[in-house]
Write a structure and sequence with these properties.
Blueprint lengths: L3 E6 L2 E6 H9 L3 E6 L5 H9 L3 E7 L6 H7 L11 E5 L13 E7 L3 H8 L3 H9 L1 E12 L2 H5 L3 H11 L2 E11 L4 H7 L4 E10 L2 H6 L11
Parallel strand pairs: 3-4, 3-6, 4-5, 6-7
Antiparallel strand pairs: 1-2, 7-9, 8-9
This protein binds S-adenosylmethionine.
Length: 222
């Protein structure tokens, strides 16, 4: 069955054929997904910078994506980017057309249930995130640091194990000073290089999932 996608274009939310969306995405040289994209400015800028990539911003709320999706729909000379897509869906229920699509998955400064998926962590939500990546795809999850994030005992070990079970191999998890590039990152850090928690790695391939390999994680540092 051809499941439809809710694609945001300005004030409208269009029902687009999942099959056609997938074909367009897979024709690109690289597919980048920004889950919880918010106002979508970061993914829109990426699409403008790399016209041969397919850049997909996803958020549970269509509202915040309106302006960037409207900008992307204009003619290229006026700031348009036909390679930028904005999809309304929650991480808990991504449409099947998104499965195995991404070469890179980003989640940046999540809140609410998206943050809980990454930090509690929630096995179902993590599996859905893993599912939207190609085997071997890179993932980068960047979060602002709350006091409990620094103090949680054994957090890294627990996260790495839960991520691995969901098919996400953590290669590094640490606190870093970074200059955030997204709207919320800038807002939270007031434009300064503030400490952020970064969890990064790659999507397991079938062989790794079967082997149930052990993975290690880097030391925390600021
Ligand atoms: C603080 S904003 C960050 C937006 C953007 N990544 C940035 O850094 O500017 C968090 C975003 O996560 C989205 N979000 C929260 N829970 C979600 C979920 N379960 N699935 C998808 N998006 C979610 C919210 O709608 C919101 O736009």
């Amino acid at each position: 069955m051809d499941q439809k996608l809710d694609v945001v274009r300005g004030r409208r939310v269009l029902k687009i054929s999942g099959r056609e969306f997938r074909q367009a995405a897979l024709a690109a040289s690289r597919v980048v997904i920004d889950m919880g994209t918010g106002d979508g400015r970061w993914i829109y800028r990426l699409a403008r910078a790399y016209p041969d990539w397919c850049c997909i911003g996803i958020d549970a709320s269509a509202e915040a994506m309106r302006e960037s999706s409207w900008r992307a729909a204009r003619k290229p000379a006026r700031g348009g980017a036909s390679n930028a897509w904005f999809v309304r869906t929650a991480v808990e229920a991504p449409p099947s057309a998104l499965c195995g699509l991404a070469d890179a998955i980003h989640v940046q400064f999540p809140w609410g249930s998206l943050r809980r998926v990454l930090l509690q962590p929630d096995p179902g939500g993590l599996s859905h995130l893993a599912c939207i990546g190609k085997p071997g795809a890179a993932f980068y999850f960047t979060m602002n640091v709350l006091p409990e994030d620094q103090e949680a005992p054994g957090r890294d070990r627990r996260l790495v194990a839960a991520y691995a079970r969901a098919g996400l191999i953590v290669e590094r998890s640490n606190l870093r000073r970074a200059s955030p590039q997204t709207s919320w990152g800038k807002r939270l850090g007031s434009g300064r290089a503030a400490p952020v928690l970064v969890i990064e790695g790659r999507i397991a391939d079938r062989h790794e999932i079967r082997a149930g390999a052990q993975w290690t994680v880097g030391e925390s540092s600021v």
